[in-house]
Amino acid sequence: MSPxxxxxxxxxxxxxxxxxxxxxxxxxxxxxRATYLGNPKGAADGLVAQYDAATAREGNxxxxxxxxxxxxxxxxxxxxxxxxxxxxxxxxxxxxxxEYRMAKTAxxxxxxxxxxxxxxxxxFSLGAGATVLIRGEFRATLEPSEREDAARQDTxxxxxxSSRILSGLLNCKSNAGLPATFTMPPEV
Length: 188
What we know:
This protein is of the alpha+beta class. It has one domain. Helices cover about 25% and strands about 25% of the residues. The protein is built from four helices and seven strands; from the N terminus they run ααβαββββββα. A hairpin with a 4-residue loop joins strand 4 (about 100) and strand 5 (about 105-110). Helix 3 packs across helix 4 (about 150-170). The protein is globular and about 50 Å long.
């Protein structure tokens, strides 16, 4: 039996730690109302549809989750996923990032983090199975007010947890190599 849309809503699948990290990066104070919007299952289904229709490319994002200040409006921070052909070469990334050892490649900045992971699943290729490289991205619209190291940890925590949830929705073998719990990985 498939989970209902309410069981896979952004607000219900993210941990309290990930939601708090999203709020910190989005600079939403605890006193302000935050609304988490998104459709994680819809994002997973969209990636499968793109792959199977051969329309997948890195810029073709599926929206996974976003946090809004108040009840509506533009996302203050969001997570999205796309299928890509390759991860960046080690040591050849933009200077805003630090590289970490997690999954295929993890890049963390103060307002954006990117996680590349391989998903082997029967859900791809119309049920025949395939191994697909997925790019997860967490991005905030404003510069966070927290310290740089804390911000990098928060952005990486959110993209890690979202990727772990997505790998479960896709039935990736071995959870796509993502650890069961988040700890800040070592730098490359």
